[in-house]
């Protein structure tokens, strides 16, 4: 007959492995929104880029431009960069900073009181 200690150990290990399975990061597929190149990454072969003229990001098979590459608008640049002077340049993400004006933020919105992008 199994002892209480054995059952307790089995319970702890089962709980641990189940939480790892449930909380494991999964990549976002083509056309799925909410990517941020952090916890919510796009699957291999897709790129996190903005929906035209918005601050909503989706995974797309269309390759976007990264920091230092030429661009015509923010729509050309990958998440975490925006088009400035014809090149994609790093910008502060939502909740990031410091920012001192709207141009510092990927979203284009800076809370100048708290110096954070939103």
UniProtKB/TrEMBL annotation:
Keywords of this entry: Signal
Signal peptide: 1-24
Domain of life: Eukaryota
UniProt-recorded name of the protein: Uncharacterized protein
Annotated organism of origin: Meloidogyne hapla (Root-knot nematode worm)
Taxonomy of the source species: Eukaryota, Metazoa, Ecdysozoa, Nematoda, Chromadorea
């Amino acid at each position: 007959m199994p002892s209480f200690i054995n059952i307790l150990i089995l319970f702890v290990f089962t709980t641990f492995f189940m939480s790892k399975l449930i909380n494991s990061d999964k990549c976002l597929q083509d056309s799925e929104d909410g990517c941020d190149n952090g916890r919510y990454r796009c699957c291999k072969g897709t790129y996190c880029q903005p929906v035209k003229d918005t601050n909503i990001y989706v995974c797309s098979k269309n390759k976007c431009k990264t920091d230092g590459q030429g661009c015509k608008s923010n729509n050309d640049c990958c998440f975490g960069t925006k088009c400035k002077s014809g090149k994609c340049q790093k910008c502060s993400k939502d909740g990031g900073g410091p920012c001192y004006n709207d141009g510092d933020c990927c979203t284009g919105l800076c809370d100048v009181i708290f110096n954070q992008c939103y």
